[in-house]
Amino acid sequence: MQRIVVLNPKGGSGKTTIAINLASYLASQGARPVLMDFDPQGSTVRWVRKRKPSQARIQVIAAFEKDTRTTRAFQLRVPEDTSHIIVDTPAAIEPGELPEMTRNADKIIVPVLPSDIDIHACSKCIRDLLLVAKIRREDNRIGVIANRIRRNTLTYQSLIRFLHTLGIPIVATIRDSQNYVRAAELGVGVHEMKSYVARADVEQWAPLVRWLAGPVPDAGSPPAQSSGGTGGTGETTVVAQSVNPAPDAACVVPPAVAKA
Ligand SMILES: Nc1ncnc2c1ncn2[C@@H]1O[C@H](COP(=O)(O)OP(=O)(O)O)[C@@H](O)[C@H]1O
Ligand SMILES: [Mg+2]
């Protein structure tokens, strides 16, 4: 069972969109994903409830509800045949909550939008993951998704450059597409839409899927090179470098992280 946490304290960065589309993809491949919604807004729960019985089954747990009649562990239990737990997290979570939120996470996906404000928030989020939640960069557990991208805009270029400097791989580049808005309304994911409508969106999920399926380093193995250019899965490097080669930027550690 793989535990995937989608996280970025910045609201509107695409956490729910990524979580539900990933669940939809996995379910359409015959896997048994469970969505765990920690956001009191309950968007993920609402999306699952829109699904029809004829669609691939996705279970959801309203983890934001605190049920005092049972233990927390009982409330969060998943079926035995669960293949993936996808955790959708709320906005504005405090750094102190990150260790708990990311505990046992095999992969942590951080969606980020190409705006100055979002880039700044993402930088803080990744710093907190490394320093507060103590996620080791070389474990390849953190991946950024550049979301709502319009190629060749200046903010997109600066987002790519910034992600290189973090040494964290870009595991997918998702375009700005009304298909995500429509899919959310309909209780489906882009993978479940007609292929002539959503082909361009579906193709963009391939690097993410490969990154998720990639090897998990075992505790005894020596750490890989901590460079966004060469230490990642390779997939992500291709995504980033195809837009902005800047290989020299890949090893730069942001001063705030390097200091601590
Ligand atoms: N790639 C995308 N293209 C178009 N709209 C998007 C995309 N990603 C997210 N959105 C829209 O942006 C809004 C915020 O996304 P959401 O996933 O709810 O963010 P979060 O869960 O981080 O708050 C939603 O209306 C969603 O449909
Ligand atoms: Mg959300």
Estimate the mean pLDDT confidence. Answer: 84
Q: Going by CATH, what is the homologous superfamily? A: P-loop containing nucleotide triphosphate hydrolases
Structural class: alpha/beta
CATH uppermost class: Alpha Beta
CATH architecture: 3-Layer(aba) Sandwich
Would you identify the regions where 5 or more consecutive residues have pLDDT less than 50?
219-260
Shape: globular
Strand order of the largest sheet: 3-2-4-1-5-6-7
Helical segment count? 11
Distance between the amino and carboxyl termini: 34 Å
CATH topology: Rossmann fold
Task: Give the H and E element order.
Answer: EHEHEHEHEHEHEHHHHH
Task: Give me the count of strands.
Answer: 7
Which small compounds were modeled alongside the protein? Answer: adenosine-5'-diphosphate, magnesium ion
Number of domains as seen in the coordinates: 1
How large is the radius of gyration? Answer: 18 Å
- Portion of residues in beta strands equals 5-15%
Biggest sheet details: 7 strands, parallel
Estimate percent helicity: 25-40%
